[in-house]
DNA sequence: GTCTATAAAAAGATAGAC
DNA sequence: GTCTATCTTTTTATAGAC
């Protein structure tokens, strides 16, 4: 990693943290420069405007949160299905909880998405990836006879909504068992036409 | 309503809309003054600082979104329970969808809550109101023999999470049947020890 | 209550030396 | 690549007349 690559990475990292801590709008080039340890105009060598910087951080974020990053369709079998779904969801929650800035930065960009088409398009695609991904999972579960035919799209969307928004909830309320909530959401969906797991 | 009360109401209304449309930070006294049709310093007669204005809009918002505003415990009986829960949830979704600014403004304040203790405290209290409110509802449902004993707190929290965050989801994705998602979430919870409604 | 005028601070951004 | 110096614009906020 060259010196200039290091500076670039440092600017991005510091910006990401500041976006979470004080918000995108209130993050200034002065603050970034001070935190990185360079002069304010030096940032313009890497990002010709603040708008560019905001977009660059966004691109990095988008890459990390695709549905396929956390849910591999092939790992689901008739026998492990519900268990696997619980496990991968919890893994996703854990991964995102590791990064103390993630939820706040994502929410910052969610609000930007309501104001700028560029951000709306990209986040919508990711969101649709989750909706569609869970629909596919429900199809597979239906094929295995693990869930009822009824409203399987709504079931899929409910799961996507719960998982995607546990992070939002975590921002405010700390002392809750989020994993249990996910277990409950999944279990509610699979209680329909249970062929195997009757306790 | 006196002239001065009208001006005050207008400042608040315009600010609320601007908070949604361009964000709290990017909303300036110039923009507000222009939209209201007064001079910029006139706003200082009503709000001695922008900070004060932001807090005032917040207080108004908080009053409108208490758990008890939407869920009246006494209306739930053994026979109407699931149906009532679905109905009141949908009513809440409808009410909030009527106000095109609501979700964005709330999310703005959610982010403020992660940065300022004042906002954190108030929103946390509201959130806890929902969590506790749904816990009480689950207790009542348990008492009626409508849900199983297992993980009833997690069930309650799952419902609170789904309902509170449908709004967040609606900001981004428009074409989804949110009511069906709520129906599905409720139905998943009640599928446990179903004494009456066996189809 | 509402205005005009203005102060004080800070923002995003550029010029140009090294 | 990184710096110092500087420009322009806009912000929140105040003073004081009407």
Secondary structure elements and their pairing?
2 copies of one chain form a homodimer.
Chain A lengths: L2 H20 L6 H8 L6 H4 L3 H15 L2 H4 L10 H18 L3 H12 L3 H27 L8 H21 L5 H13 L9
Helix pairs in contact in A: 1-2, 1-7, 6-10, 7-8, 8-9, 9-10
The structure holds a DNA duplex (18 and 18 nucleotides).
CATH architecture field of the largest domain in chain A: Orthogonal Bundle
- Rounded Rg of chain A: 20 Å
Work out the largest interface and the residue count of each chain. A-B, 47 and 47 residues
Average pLDDT score of chain A: 95
Tell me the total number of β-strands of chain A. 0
Report on this structure.
The structure is a homodimer of 199-residue chains. Helices cover 71% and strands 0% of the residues of chain A. With 199 residues, chain A is mainly alpha-helical. Chain A folds into two domains: 3-59, Arc Repressor Mutant, subunit A, CATH 1.10.10.60; 65-190, Tetracycline Repressor, domain 2. In chain A, α1 (3-22) packs across α2 and α8 (117-143) crosses α9 (152-172). The longest helix of chain A is centred in the middle third of the chain and has 27 residues, at 117-143. At the A-B interface, α7, α8, α9 and α10 of A face α7, α8, α9 and α10 of B.
Provide keyphrases for this structure.
DNA-binding; mainly alpha; disordered C terminus; 199 residues; Arc Repressor Mutant, subunit A; homodimer
